[in-house]
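Extended Data, panel c. Modelled sequence:
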Amino acid sequence: MRAIVYQGRGTVALQDVAPPQVEQPGDALVRVELAGICGTDLHVIAGDLAGIRPGAIIGHEFVGEVIAVGAAVTRFKVGNRVMSSDFTACGHCRWCDRGDHWECHERAFFGTGTSFGPALHGAQAEIVRVPNADTTLGLLPKGCSDEAAILLGDNLATGWAAVERGALLPGEIIAVIGGGSVGQLASLSAQAAGAGAVVVIEPSETRRAFARANGSLATSPSEARSLIDSLTDGEGADLVVEAVGAAVTLTGAFDLVRKRGRIISVGAHATESWPFPLAKSFANELTLGFAIGDSIRLRPRLLSLITTGVLDPTVVVDRRVGFADAVQAYADLKAQRILKAVIDPRI
């Protein structure tokens, strides 16, 4: 079968590889009908994640059709169209019982090598093996497009997790650092949750224009504090979401938040350490938290918002390609010429 394969730092390529097989009773095989290219994938191919090795199939966002199931799979059968979380979880440990699926000891993150658990080939392929399928997969309902399901699996779940973890209250002012797909979806999530105003902070004018067209205020990093001050009488944002995954942008969040405010980072961080502004955080009673999107937990709520028309995450998808153009799509995403690309293996 064909797949997008990590070649080494900075390089991916389309290759023919052996198709996966059912290995465990809880496995399902899914014929991929649409796969996403995510900002996390850019971290992967840049070599930021130490667990990736040449030969790994990339990608963790997908929808498709079940073509085989293991003997222990009870929720799905051959022919079902399904969506997926970007990582697997067992569904029955204490972490899963609490809805904290990311902390499951059986977690494996598609397409990221051993960075976040056992190595598991990714979904930018014609077929993907899904361990713990009964927990990891969900049926694709009417009213939810393939593109929306792709985004619910990671980017939308991450954006919503930022708002949820940040305990946003109706009417509060939120600043989102980063206008990529996660940042834009965090903005849409905050609007759906009742934010008084959302300010997207982004150096790219194209991405700022996108944010404005989709209900946010938008500003460059150098003018962010001034705009936030005008909205808050100089106090600062109630909640700041860092959606880049860089130490410099996380540091910058502390200059935008009000006293007793909250900072939530959902960017994919690879830096091992970071100088924490301890004295300022203590004096201003700041809260700093991190969140990872858990679509297994959030799937029912987000599907309801999507199918009722409250939230349309597909606005961020601006490139749909076949395998032949996938490598170029990676380059265009890295250069910020596009916001979100999806791959249709059937093209």
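The first helix runs from residue 39 to 45. This feature is highlighted in the accompanying rendering.
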